[in-house]
């Protein structure tokens, strides 16, 4: 192999790996990312069936109903619209009524959000940023004390 | 008064870093040996001063001195002694002080043990390290001073975030920081090399032990963090592709690439420009991690209190160091002489392949971590990039890399023979295929990826073993000579084999724990039993209990296998009174390498509780593999060649002809 061929092989294989990596990244970014939506977004926009989304908002006061088999249902609100959510599993330690949360899952045919993940991160002051901003957009943000 | 003394020591240290930033490098550039000689003592003085201020802060925590804002915000007089101690770095200010302590610790180490370095390289390296240190000490003094006082001290403190009240806080941050910050010295070496316009095989040999040291600690730190999250958060997951985890994982990936490219540079004088770039990138990724974690752009348990001024300050530091070093690189790198040629199929070729895949994987993780932040900043659109993204990008990049791992060490330098290399790996290949067939036979065709993943792990492990065995021709020369030749192998050969074996172990743990996990989530009343895998888990009832600074509901569970009691577990739900914050304490039963994992959910009032029960086969291998990798790094560091330092070029030529090439 000549010097030139060696260099070409090296550059060629580097190019190939990088192209594969770039392709994977672009494909994954177009397909595997999950958009954040507020209850209003979901009510107003028709979602493609089975599309995974992140739903964020406040857990409506008095809406949490627990049934056996560790199932729980509650409603998520942004003070304008309300989406019912069901979840089977253990809720995070900081899940409370009136608390901001983010859940991930799919809206089913009855308009119920079936969540497979509920996040209320491990900090007592935690208010998901997305939720804060969505509430600010709607003019329902009650100052920073509301997050405490 | 003592507190002010600590503050004063830190200010003095800052002044010394300014001196150090200028004097030794001036000496190196003008050839003044007296100026260069100041580097080492000043580095040690910096270390002592920062250590003093760290000890003062620790003292304030141990004495619960609530006149110090930092202690008041993060401590409580009823907190157990261990957590008073570890609480020093369980907050933003204290952890930055730890970060700086480790920066100057590495300076002092280079000062002490850098005797075999050329004087100008040592002086310049220590000056560059001081630029970084000065930036961070200024950051502490200007925006995050842990020594600020409260005029009217409160009687009681706010307590430490309960999640952090765990032995994990004693281990995880110091390990991780030594790793993170350890790469700073490699960065300083690289920048010094660029300034002096000189990188050679000897440079790579000096840099390698520091890279190994930092990498070893970073590996352990990440593994410890993963295990801590696993048992403390109660979600049973060991990796979440959380931006904060990625922040530590990216320097690890880049550091792993650096570790390998430095070998090429040391042995063959090739890949110089690339190695220097990797050294700069690795620490840049550490800095990026610090920015992501500390600036408040992310919400996480690591974010602590967020203050916009801090974010901007770190961003400025980030831009100066990353931008400055890359600009210097663009300017000076073309001056570095390129070294030896090699065929694509060769040890060098294998290591280049390793670097390609590792950097591509780093890039994938970087995109996944930054894309949501960038998109939010540009368009206001909120997205989440989670596990599916990383499985699809990171996963496929790791598979070819892992397949190639056993080939690397058996290929010869310069021009390798793939067929001969494969012949040395026949046994490993056969073993891996047998395991794949066996797992398919055991579990059928419903899971295709898992048996292949297990086969891949076995291939990596067996490849590492057979590399060592065939290298000393263990089975051909008789046991006695075989063992003596094993003992005579250089540390770096053992290090490579052991670390690669550890990679295989971790992969095996990841595959089995992910593919064959059993999970049950049930609402249980006293007397109820659920079955996971071969284990029957019975809930015997719950009772309240009081701890020093919390109350808890403890569930009592009995675990039986085939009717025989094998363990009793007490997972609990704690409530920390000072912060009004609940936490979950998981109950874990380890059997062999597998674990039964229990965590409690909400109590339903009538004695029923939500319970999550997992059986996680071979999960501990994930962390054991990391420990094995770290042992590999230690063995490599123990290599005599690294200890005696780089020989003179002439001496080197004589030695390489006397010792068979590897």
UniProtKB/TrEMBL annotation, chain A:
Chief localization: membrane
Native source species: Roseibium denhamense
Lineage: superkingdom: Bacteria
Entry's family note: Belongs to the CcmE/CycJ family.
Residues annotated to bind heme: 122, 126
Sequence ranges on the Cytoplasmic membrane side: 1-7
Key words of the record: Cell membrane, Cytochrome c-type biogenesis, Heme, Iron, Membrane, Metal-binding, Signal-anchor, Transmembrane, Transmembrane helix
Gene from which the chain derives: ccmE
Membrane topology: Single-pass type II membrane protein
Purpose of the protein: Heme chaperone required for the biogenesis of c-type cytochromes. Transiently binds heme delivered by CcmC and transfers the heme to apo-cytochromes in a process facilitated by CcmF and CcmH.
Record SUPFAM superfamilies: Heme chaperone CcmE
Compartment(s) where it occurs, according to its Swiss-Prot or TrEMBL record: Cell membrane; Membrane
NCBIfam families: PRK13254.1-1, PRK13254.1-3, PRK13254.1-5
Protein name (record): Cytochrome c-type biogenesis protein CcmE
Residue intervals on the Extracellular side: 29-148
Automatic annotation (TrEMBL), chain B:
Species the sequence originates in: Roseibium denhamense
Residues annotated as domain Cytochrome c assembly protein: 89-295
Domain Cytochrome c-type biogenesis protein CcmF C-terminal: 315-640
Primary localization: membrane
Keyword Membrane: yes
Protein name as annotated: Cytochrome c-type biogenesis protein CcmF
Residues spanning the membrane: 6-29, 41-62, 96-114, 126-144, 177-197, 209-229, 249-266, 273-292, 312-331, 352-374, 394-413, 425-443, 449-470, 491-516, 618-638
Taxonomic lineage from the root: Bacteria, Pseudomonadati, Pseudomonadota, Alphaproteobacteria, Hyphomicrobiales
InterPro entries: CcmF_C, Cyt_c_assembly, Cyt_c_biogenesis, Cyt_c_biogenesis_CcmF
Location relative to the cell: Cell inner membrane
Family: Belongs to the CcmF/CycK/Ccl1/NrfE/CcsA family.
Keyword vocabulary terms for this entry: Cell inner membrane, Cell membrane, Cytochrome c-type biogenesis, Membrane, Transmembrane, Transmembrane helix
Protein purpose: Required for the biogenesis of c-type cytochromes. Possible subunit of a heme lyase.
Bilayer topology annotation: Multi-pass membrane protein
């Amino acid at each position: 192999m000549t010097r030139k061929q060696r260099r070409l092989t090296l550059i060629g294989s580097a190019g190939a790996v990088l192209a594969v990596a770039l392709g994977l990244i672009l494909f994954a970014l177009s397909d595997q990312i999950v958009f954040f939506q507020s209850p209003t977004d979901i009510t107003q926009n028709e979602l493609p069936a089975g599309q995974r989304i992140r739903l964020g908002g406040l857990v409506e006061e008095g809406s949490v109903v627990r049934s056996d088999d560790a199932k729980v249902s509650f409603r998520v609100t942004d003070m304008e619209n309300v989406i019912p959510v069901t979840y089977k599993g253990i809720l995070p330690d900081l899940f409370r009524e009136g608390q901001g949360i983010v859940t991930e899952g799919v809206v089913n045919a009855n308009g119920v959000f079936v969540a497979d993940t509920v996040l209320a991160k491990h900090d007592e002051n935690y208010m998901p940023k997305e939720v804060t901003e969505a509430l600010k957009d709607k003019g329902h943000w009650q100052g920073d004390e509301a997050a405490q | 008064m003592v507190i002010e003394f600590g503050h004063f020591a830190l200010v003095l240290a800052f002044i010394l870093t300014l001196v150090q930033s200028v004097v030794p490098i001036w000496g190196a550039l003008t050839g003044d040996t007296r100026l260069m000689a100041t580097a080492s003592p000043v580095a040690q003085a910096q270390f002592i001063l920062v250590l003093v201020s760290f000890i003062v802060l620790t003292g304030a925590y141990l004495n619960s001195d609530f006149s110090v804002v930092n202690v008041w915000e993060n401590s409580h007089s009823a907190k157990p002694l261990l957590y008073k101690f570890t609480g020093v770095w369980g907050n933003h200010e204290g952890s930055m002080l730890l970060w700086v302590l480790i920066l100057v610790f590495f300076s002092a180490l280079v000062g002490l043990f850098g005797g075999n370095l050329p004087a100008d390289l040592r002086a310049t390296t220590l000056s560059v390290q001081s630029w970084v240190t000065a930036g961070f000490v200024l950051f502490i003094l200007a925006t995050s001073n842990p020594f600020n006082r409260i005029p009217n001290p409160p009687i009681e403190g706010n307590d430490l975030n309960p999640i952090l009240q765990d032995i994990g806080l004693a281990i995880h941050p110091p390990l991780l920081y030594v790793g993170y910050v350890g790469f700073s010295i490699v960065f300083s070496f690289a920048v010094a090399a660029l300034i002096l316009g000189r990188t050679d095989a000897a440079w790579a040999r000096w840099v390698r032990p520091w890279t190994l040291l930092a990498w070893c600690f970073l590996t352990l730190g990440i593994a410890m963090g993963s295990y801590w999250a696993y048992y403390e958060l109660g979600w049973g997951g060991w990796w979440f592709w959380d931006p904060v985890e990625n922040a530590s994982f990216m320097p690890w990936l880049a550091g792993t690439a650096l570790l390998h490219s430095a070998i090429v540079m040391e042995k063959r004088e090739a890949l110089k420009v690339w190695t220097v770039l990797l050294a700069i990138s690795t620490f840049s990724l550490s800095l990026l991690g610090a920015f992501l974690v500390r600036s408040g752009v992310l919400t996480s348990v690591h974010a602590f209190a967020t203050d916009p001024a801090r974010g901007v300050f770190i961003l400025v530091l980030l831009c100066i160091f990353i931008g400055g070093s890359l600009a210097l690189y663009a300017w000076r790198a073309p001056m570095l002489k390129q070294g030896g040629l090699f065929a694509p199929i060769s040890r060098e070729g294998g290591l280049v392949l390793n670097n390609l895949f590792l950097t591509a994987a780093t890039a994938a993780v970087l995109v996944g971590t930054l894309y949501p932040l960038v998109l939010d900043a540009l368009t206001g659109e909120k997205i989440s990039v989670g596990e599916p993204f990383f499985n699809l990008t990171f996963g496929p990049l790791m598979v070819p890399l892992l397949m190639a791992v056993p080939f690397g060490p058996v290929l010869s330098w310069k021009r390798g023979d793939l067929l001969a290399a494969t012949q040395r790996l026949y046994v490993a290949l056969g073993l891996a295929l047998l395991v794949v067939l066996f797992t398919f036979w055991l579990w059928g065709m419903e899971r295709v990826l898992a048996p292949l993943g297990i086969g891949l792990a076995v291939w990596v492990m067996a490849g590492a073993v057979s590399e060592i065995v065939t290298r000393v021709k263990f089975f051909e020369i008789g046991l006695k000579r075989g063992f003596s030749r094993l003992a005579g192998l250089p540390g770096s050969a053992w290090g490579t084999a052991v670390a690669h074996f550890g990679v295989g172990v971790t992969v095996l743990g990841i595959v089995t724990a992910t593919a064959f996990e059993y999970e049950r989530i049930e609402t249980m009343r006293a007397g109820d039993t659920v079955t996971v895998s071969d284990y029957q888990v019975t809930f015997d009832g719950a009772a309240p209990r009081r701890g020093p600074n919390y109350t808890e509901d403890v569930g009592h569970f009995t675990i039986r296998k085939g009717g025989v009691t094998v363990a009793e577990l007490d997972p609990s739900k704690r409530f920390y009174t000072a912060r009004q914050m609940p936490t979950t304490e998981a109950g874990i039963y380890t059997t062999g390498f597998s674990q039964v994992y229990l965590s409690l959910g909400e109590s339903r009032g009538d004695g029923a509780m939500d319970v999550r029960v997992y059986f996680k086969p071979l999960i501990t291998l994930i962390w054991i593999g990391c420990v094995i990798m770290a042992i590999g790094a230690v063995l490599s560091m123990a290599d005599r060649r690294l200890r005696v330092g780089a020989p003179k070029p002439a001496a080197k030529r004589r030695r390489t002809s006397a010792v068979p090439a590897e």
